[in-house]
Amino acid sequence: MNIFFKELKANYKSLLIWSCAQVFIIFAGMMKYKGFADSGVDINSLFAGFPKELLVVFGMGSTDISQVAGFYSVFFLYFMLLAAVHAVMFGAVVVSKEERDHSADFLFSRPVKRHEVITPKLLAGVVNILFFNLVTFGASVFFIGLYNNGDGLVDKVAITMVALFVLQLFFLALGAMLGASLKTTKIATSAAAGIILGTFFLSVAVDLNANFDILKYLTPFKYFNAKMLVIDGTLSLNSVGILLVVTFILTTLCYLIFNKRDLST
After folding, report:
1. Which of 58, 177, 199, 235 is most buried, judged by most C-beta within 10 A?
2. Of 97, 240, 265, 112, nearest to 175 (Cα)?
3. Domain count along the chain
4. pLDDT tens figures, 109-157
5. Where does the sequence pass through the membrane (predicted)?
6. Is residue 105 in some structural domain?
7. Structural domain containing residue 71
8. Is position 228 within any domain?
């Protein structure tokens, strides 16, 4: 339990920074919507003249962004990216940092098994991503309500946050597995960043070319559709199930690999 609270204390400053960045994205997005709404410009017609490739990269696609729900759904892409980077980096660092900080010989020489060290670290990670998720939820409801006649779309935002939390769990487990597998924290975080960028660009490629549709199962960024979540208020249970199963597999691999790892001190 001491390890759990130690990790929470060690990471609360970075968590606050990540959370503030998320709040700023939501605030800036809703301010941009207010600017378009007050100008009387037909937003859909305005963006219709932009290249399809540019619209896909910015998550606009065919969504009706003249409505606050449609405009907000565009930002789900950025929520995913920020949440993914935060979760995967936390997982990669929290598992491997004892070797980086040269404290592994002190920690693991005590009468404690390795899984008893990893478990509270991962639980601290779950608390971190949950806090990040709740901040995203609260900021979303507040700013949407501010510019939507008091209607914060609570039910639809809540469904969106469930999808986001499942993605966060996946990336936390991925980061932890990389942290347990790779030699140093630097290599683990670099690999995590590379996977996020690779899977993100793969999701863009799938949107741009129908021939790549089969590859959508290889990128977690395609498991949830912002339009279905925010506008239709529906959540794909198949996607939830697949990601949770993969998360369990990655977490199991993290324990197995770390238990056999030759720790450097």
Report:
1. 177
2. 97
3. 1
4. 555 677 778 889 899 999 999 999 999 999 999 999 888 888 888 999 9
5. 12-31, 70-95, 122-145, 157-180, 187-206, 235-258
6. yes
7. 2-260
8. yes
- Examine residue 139 and state whether it is found in any structural domain, yes or no: yes
Count CA atoms closer than 13 A to 164's CA, side-chain side. Answer: 32
Quick one: pLDDT at residue 46? 63
> What's 42-103 look like in SS3?
CHHHHHHCCCHHHHHHCCCCCCCCCCHHHHHHHCHHHHHHHHHHHHHHHHHHHHHHHHHCCC
Contacts of 12 (CB under 8 A, 6+ apart): none
DSSP states of the chain: -HHHHHHHHHHHHHHHHHHHHHHHHHHHHHHHHHHHHHHT--HHHHHHTS-HHHHHHTT-TT--TTSHHHHHHHTHHHHHHHHHHHHHHHHHHHHHHHHHTT-HHHHTTSS--HHHHHHHHHHHHHHHHHHHHHHHHHHHHHHHHHTTTT---HHHHHHHHHHHHHHHHHHHHHHHHHHHHSSSHHHHHHHHHHHHHHHHHHHHHHHH-GGGGGGGGG-GGGSS-HIIIIII----HHHHHHHHHHHHHHHHHHHHHHHH-----
* Single-letter amino acid, residue 115: H
Distance CA 202, CA 212 (A): 9
Q: What is the distance between the alpha carbons of residues 155 and 161, in angstroms, rounded to a whole number?
A: 10
Greater confidence (97 vs 151) lies with 151
